[in-house]
């Protein structure tokens, strides 16, 4: 069950990979079309405004079509065969579902407690999807329908029909079954979802009312779930769905950027719920403190090598918001340090919240700059200066705490290992040595496959932002964490037959190479 949940979490992350660039375009577009910042140059009638408005509206594509993206994105990681066809099936059946639901509510809305004549948006619980007026089920509804279609696809796509019915095989057969399945699903949605919406509205009030305590618990859990690959499931409803604000925190914040930019009030007073997207502070301020502690506690003869390891993975955490490479360097050697790291991350985010500093602070510096600092610097620079001060203080706290614990308990963090088996600077030589029998240089994917017991040992493979997630048949054939670090990975997380190789931001191309070897 855990493997299935992890695989779902990784597949769900596929559309999220588009958010970084889209967010940058929205941030830049908002900056250059806001009169408060740009003056008369950004007047709605100016050519400057009109040109940048084109860019801005294009940037909204991803956030305005989130349900469709999740519907199409989930099969990429979850379908066991013919993923592209499953994406098409999911899209068509998702639209079919909403046509059914729209028609049911237009005819019997009162029976289900839905005022279908109301305008979409606001508190009506209605929205428009592909020009269909329907219930706003957000990401949860999209994932549910896509999941049903994936199940049907995996079960019925290869069904053999009589030759004279061959035209109805494959995707057509899946669509035929799904067509009739979606009718009762639409009825159930009409019965259940309005009540879910009422529950969400109540939960929004509870979460916002929880204030600093809610932020602390949320960030703590988000960090602690990273080793299990389940953190996506925790934060996705907050950031991309209607759990705390309409449309999710990312879309809600981006739409309010002009209003926030024009205001001098504290950021927390303007969007209090945005404290739940503050998981990135530890990436920018915590990871440098950890890296400094590792360097300071490393054996003198290993410091030069350890610096070569720490600099790139720390910069990746700061600018891109990807922390697995640095976190997995100590997670398995010193899990207690990871718990301390999670607690410090929660404390930092809570301190920022209490100081009135909220926003889209979930990624790295690039994302934060585009959606916060650049468009809002005009009226909120004092808060961002305070953010820098608080962050640097916590960098020092991270360094002191980690250095103290490493020395006190003699944790074997990078640079303190007793063995000399792995040399950080010799990964290329290692690969060449391993590939000697082939007479050429082995690819990264080949080395990973070898470490996982070969192609006959692979059940399935998917990926998230940084990890290659592989389920194997026999875990005894797989190599340990040291092997994967030696070939150039940042480590390997193991849970039974589920292996997560920490590759980094190049994982999509590595997965393609890996699948090509199977």
Number of domains: 3
Distance between the termini: 24 Å
Q: Strand tally, please?
A: 6
The largest sheet has its strands arranged as 3-4-6-5
Overall average pLDDT: 84
What does the largest sheet look like? 4 strands, antiparallel
Secondary structure: helix percent: 55-70%
Strand content: 5-15%
Rounded to an integer, what's the Rg over CA atoms?
25 Å
Q: What's the overall geometry? A: globular
Put the structure in a nutshell.
With 518 residues, the protein is mainly alpha-helical.
Strand and helix layout:
Blueprint: H1 2-12, H2 19-32, H3 35-38, H4 47-64, H5 66-78, H6 83-108, E1 126-129, E2 132-135, H7 138-156, H8 171-224, H9 231-240, H10 249-262, H11 267-270, H12 281-297, H13 303-320, H14 324-327, H15 335-354, H16 365-409, H17 427-434, H18 444-451, E3 458-463, E4 467-472, H19 481-486, E5 492-495, E6 498-502, H20 507-516
Antiparallel strand pairs: 1-2, 3-4, 4-6, 5-6
Helix pairs in contact: 1-5, 2-4, 2-16, 5-6, 5-7, 6-7, 6-8, 7-8, 8-9, 8-15, 10-16, 12-13, 12-16, 15-16, 18-20
């Amino acid at each position: 069950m855990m493997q299935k949940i992890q695989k779902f979490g990784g597949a769900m992350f596929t559309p999220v990979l588009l958010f970084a660039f889209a967010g940058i375009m929205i941030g830049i577009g908002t900056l250059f079309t806001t009169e408060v910042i740009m003056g008369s140059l950004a007047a709605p009638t100016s050519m400057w405004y009109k040109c940048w408005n084109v860019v801005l509206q294009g940037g909204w594509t991803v956030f305005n079509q989130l349900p469709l993206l999740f519907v199409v994105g989930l099969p990429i990681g979850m379908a066991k065969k013919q993923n592209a066809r499953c994406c098409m099936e999911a899209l068509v059946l998702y639209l079919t579902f909403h046509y059914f639901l729209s028609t049911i509510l237009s005819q019997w809305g009162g029976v289900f407690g839905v005022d279908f004549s109301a305008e979409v948006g606001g508190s009506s619980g209605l929205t428009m999807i592909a020009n269909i007026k329907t219930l706003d089920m957000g990401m949860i509804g999209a994932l549910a329908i896509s999941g049903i279609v994936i199940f049907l696809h995996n079960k019925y796509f290869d069904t053999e029909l009589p030759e004279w019915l061959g035209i109805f095989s494959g995707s057509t057969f899946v669509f035929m079954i799904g067509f009739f399945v979606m009718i009762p699903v639409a009825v159930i949605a009409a019965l259940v979802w309005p009540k879910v919406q009422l529950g969400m509205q109540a939960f929004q009030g509870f979460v916002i009312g929880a204030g600093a305590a809610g932020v602390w618990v949320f960030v703590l859990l988000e960090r602690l779930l990273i080793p299990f690959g389940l953190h996506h499931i925790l934060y996705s409803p907050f950031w991309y769905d209607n759990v705390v604000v309409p449309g999710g925190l990312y879309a809600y914040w981006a739409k309010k950027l002009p209003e926030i930019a024009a205001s001098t009030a504290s950021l927390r007073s303007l969007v209090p719920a945005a404290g739940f997207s503050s998981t990135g502070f530890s990436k920018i301020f915590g990871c440098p403190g950890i890296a400094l502690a590792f360097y300071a506690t490393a054996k003198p003869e290993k410091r030069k090598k350890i610096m070569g390891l720490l600099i790139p993975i720390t910069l990746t955490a700061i600018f891109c918001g990807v922390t697995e490479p640095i976190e997995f360097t100590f997670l398995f050697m010193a899990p207690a340090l990871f718990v301390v790291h999670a607690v410090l991350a929660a404390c930092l985010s809570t301190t920022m919240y209490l100081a009135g500093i909220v926003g889209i602070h979930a990624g790295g510096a690039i994302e934060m700059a585009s959606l916060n600092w650049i468009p809002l610097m005009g009226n909120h620079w004092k808060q961002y200066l305070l953010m820098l001060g608080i962050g640097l203080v916590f960098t020092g706290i991270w360094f002191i705490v980690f250095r103290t614990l490493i020395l006190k308990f003699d944790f074997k963090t990078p640079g303190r290992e007793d063995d000399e088996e792995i040399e950080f600077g010799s990964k290329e030589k290692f690969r060449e040595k391993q590939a000697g029998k082939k007479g050429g240089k082995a690819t990264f994917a080949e080395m990973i496959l070898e470490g996982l017991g070969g192609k006959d040992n692979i059940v399935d493979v998917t990926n998230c932002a940084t990890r290659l997630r592989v389920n194997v048949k026999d875990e005894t054939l797989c190599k340990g964490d040291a092997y994967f670090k030696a070939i150039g990975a940042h480590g390997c997380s193991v849970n039974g037959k589920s292996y997560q190789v920490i590759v980094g931001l190049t994982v999509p191309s590595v997965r393609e190479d890996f699948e090509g070897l199977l």
